[in-house]
Specification:
single chain; alpha+beta; Uridine Diphospho-n-acetylenolpyruvylglucosamine Reductase, domain 2; Uridine Diphospho-n-acetylenolpyruvylglucosamine Reductase, domain 3; Uridine Diphospho-n-acetylenolpyruvylglucosamine Reductase, domain 1; four-stranded mixed β-sheet; about 25% helix
Length: about 350
């Protein structure tokens, strides 16, 4: 197993931030992980597990061990009357996994098409889009315990899913390496097209009969029209979470801003669109050197070339302060800051 020193991570993060890791290694099997962590020095080192590098912002060099997850493999592990149980290794590219499931007619993931990153990060973040979250389709995951070098299974309740949250971002942060995720996918599709512009896009595509494939394509079309390709412009997708406010706060803001959109939640609160708040605060399309806010989607912060991580972080802080001052609403970063 080759462990590199002071290795550049520029090509391993979708922001394209040019920083280095003190130690860097890639693993393709559980045996690889065990070999790397058998070295006492690396076991004690600060660690970072990298998948697609699509939901993080490096603000400085990483003084520890970065492990790149290259675990591969997809299999149908079982099925029953209503569901397929599909297991994917954590290193699989998320969108390619979604396309695999669509090809096999495993329904449920189509609204999550074209989300950047790898499968292993999906439960960590409880990724979601267009009215669907991972927790809606999750069955179980397997993870390697760094402390005792064993594999442990986690069911849905043990993952403690929340809005872009899970136990792996808090209590168990840096204690486990997710190795596989199993999803509970539908044999009979339940189409979810009421969120966002999916219905409009299906109409523009001339679709008369919905399928999981056409919904996936509609989602891809919408995302491609609004979001920059990380291969062309450095970014990590949505940088901020959509904020949740009490209903009274929403009604107060709605009087002042009639065009404001809110989504009623089961707990009685209302979810606001962070992108709308940022745009109305005047940030959409603004550039500060190579750090900027995307011209088509205010939720996305971008690196136009050689921006440093702390420049993008400072821009995000200015946006947080501006939105709070204008609307009295506190935004929260969705991207992990390192």
């Amino acid at each position: 197993m080759q462990i590199l020193e002071y290795h550049s991570l520029k090509k391993f993060n979708t922001f394209g931030i040019d920083i280095s890791a003190k130690y860097f290694a890639e693993f393709s099997s559980i045996a690889d992980i065990q070999e790397i962590l058998s070295n006492p020095n690396h076991l004690k080192s600060k660690k970072l597990i990298l998948g697609g590098g699509s939901n993080l912002l490096f603000t400085k060099n990483f003084d520890g061990l970065v492990l790149k997850n290259n675990l591969k493999g997809i299999e149908l592990v079982k099925e029953d009357t209503d569901f397929y149980y599909v297991k994917s290794a954590a290193g699989e590219v998320w969108h390619e996994f979604v396309l695999h499931c669509i090809k096999k007619n495993y329904a449920g993931l189509e609204n999550l098409s074209l989300i950047p990153g790898n499968v292993g990060a999906s439960p960590m973040q409880n990724i979601g889009a267009y009215g669907v979250e991972i927790k809606d389709l999750f069955y179980e995951l397997e993870a390697f315990s760094i402390a005792d070098k064993t594999i442990r299974k986690f069911n849905k309740s043990e993952c403690k899913f929340g809005y872009r949250e899970s136990i792996f971002k808090h209590e168990l942060k840096n204690k486990f390496i997710i190795t596989s995720v199993t999803f509970k996918l539908l044999k009979k599709p339940l189409f979810n097209t009421s969120y966002g512009a999916i219905e409009t896009e299906l109409g523009a595509m001339g679709i008369k009969e919905k399928t999981i494939k056409t919904i996936s394509q509609a989602v891809c079309n919408i995302r491609n029209s609004k979001l920059p390709n990380p291969a062309e412009i450095g970014n990590a997708g949505s940088f901020f979470k959509n904020p949740e406010v009490v209903k009274g706060k929403y009604e107060f803001l709605k009087i002042k801003y009639p065009e404001m959109v809110g989504y009623n939640l089961e707990n009685g609160n209302v979810k606001l669109a962070a992108g709308w708040l940022i745009e109305k605060a005047g940030w959409k399309g603004k550039n500060f050197g190579d750090a900027g806010v995307h011209k088509f989607q205010a939720l996305v912060l971008v690196n136009y070339g050689n921006a440093k991580g702390n420049e993008i972080f400072d821009l995000s802080q200015k946006i947080l302060d501006s939105v709070k001052e204008k609307f009295g609403v506190e935004l929260e970063r969705e991207v992990n800051i390192i």
